[in-house]
Amino acid sequence: MGKLRVLLAIIVVIAHTEPFFGLYSMGGDVAVKAFYIISGFYMSMVLTTKYLKKKNGYKIFITNRALRLYPTYWAVLLGAVGLSLVSLGFTGSPFKLAPYFAHFDEFNLTTFCYFIFTNIFIFGQDLSSFLEIDQTGALAFTSNFWPSSPKVLEFLLVPPAWTIGVELMFYLKAPFLVKRSNLFLAVLCAISIGWRLYFYQIGYDFDPWTYRFYPFELLFFLLGIFSHRIYQVINFEQIQMRSLGYATHFILLFTFLYQFVPFDWKDTLYLILITTLLPFIFQYSKNDRLDRKFGEYSYPIYISHFLVASIIMILRNALNIPWEYMSELTIIACFAASYILIVWLIDPIESVRAKIAKKNTPSVSVKKTEVLIK
Asked: What is the pTM of this model?
């Protein structure tokens, strides 16, 4: 599963830079939805096999999620602020802080507090796509943020983190959702699909409604839960490992060569295939230590790629280097930055998480469970 997660993270990097030697695979929106499905699968797995068995399981689950997400995010956030201050000192341009310098006197205290809170704690970043700053400096709802000036999105110091805001909304509800019946979850799926189709019908068939609105995106997390439930009832003893390998390599190849698939509805087809094949992909890779270690790069690559690309861009402009191989350089640099984050930050915190799990779940053997985030 780790290879798939890293490939999806790389696809998001390509979507925000330029094609990788001519390949762009799928759009970032499809990759993000695939991430949501994988997240639903993993959260259903860890909740049903470990956290829900304990009286204080919800608290432990949320604590572990926070330890997984926030330290890496805060490191990238500090990097964005630091880069902005360095840029300000050397070039006079405050980089990511530029919107604050330019519009600080245009918004009120509540708006300023929202920016501080959401940049530190991530919650609410997904809402930035549905907000604008009105003439009084207050935040107001907008159905189309594109004409807004300045856009609320511009004040996010780690732009990719808005998807983590969607993830956090799911995490708060996941312990309750995974305990519900298949019928209950199916009804939720139908409501999410129906609501999306209705909004599309009345004209809201554009970004941010296509993949930033949590009630619509909840569908993909629920598909992940269903995928895990399918995994639980499959008798893998009757399935050859070779067949599992075929399923895994097929979805990896489909993901990589996505742009060449001729179907009109290939977005839907791909997400259905992800949901269907995840049980087989997980079974094939769950004991692969190398795949698990490789998968740890997915979150730091995803969350740091804007900062890494920005550093490359600033260096290229400062050194007057021709603008070539942007995505290739960014991907290589993201792996390097992720390695540093894993060795110096993520692994030490993972040890703390393992100790917490061992202390609070003595009856369950503690393994380093691979987890998703963008």
From this structure: 0.92
